[in-house]
């Protein structure tokens, strides 16, 4: 249910952003609000306090964000607080951010290697991804995992390219087990 709520509000914000031509501004607002919620646990505690009236919570949220975000973002926050959907705010903003990335053809890639990549290697990976996908830009996330032994694993959305030595050894092991069982 929470994902449906986040999707509904996030999609409404995205539609409004495209219609009003303020996608970039609302994206900045979304990043700001998500960071504010992440960095301030007391805000979440206040919004979850059943002894505080919804209207009072809405005033607090308005006071915190009024000089830092657009009226559209203020409206979304107010609506979600009054409708008691405050626990879904970060989810809705995350959904919105993902939709904006999709709209602007910005991919998000997660790259895992056994050793840290040099800047030159990172650029080569990014260039290859730009050349072989529909995306015009990438947000790259690098991770080092020595257990893959060597090679590279790239995840973009639900697609995975795995050329790690660990994966190749696992596949070889499965093939050898099939051969042994066949005798």
From TrEMBL:
Superkingdom of origin: Bacteria
Family annotation (Pfam families): OSCP (PF00213)
Record keywords, A-Z: ATP synthesis, Cell membrane, CF(1), Hydrogen ion transport, Ion transport, Membrane, Transport
Signal peptide limits: none
InterPro entries: ATP_synth_OSCP/delta_N_sf, ATPase_OSCP/dsu
Primary location class: membrane
UniProt cross-references to Gene3D superfamilies, sorted A to Z: N-terminal domain of the delta subunit of the F1F0-ATP synthase
Topology of the protein relative to the lipid bilayer: Peripheral membrane protein
One GO CC term, this protein: plasma membrane
Molecular-function GO terms, alphabetical: proton-transporting ATP synthase activity, rotational mechanism
Subcellular location: Cell membrane; Membrane
NCBIfam families in the cross-refs: ATP_synt_delta (TIGR01145)
Protein family (similarity comment): Belongs to the ATPase delta chain family.
Record's protein name: ATP synthase subunit delta
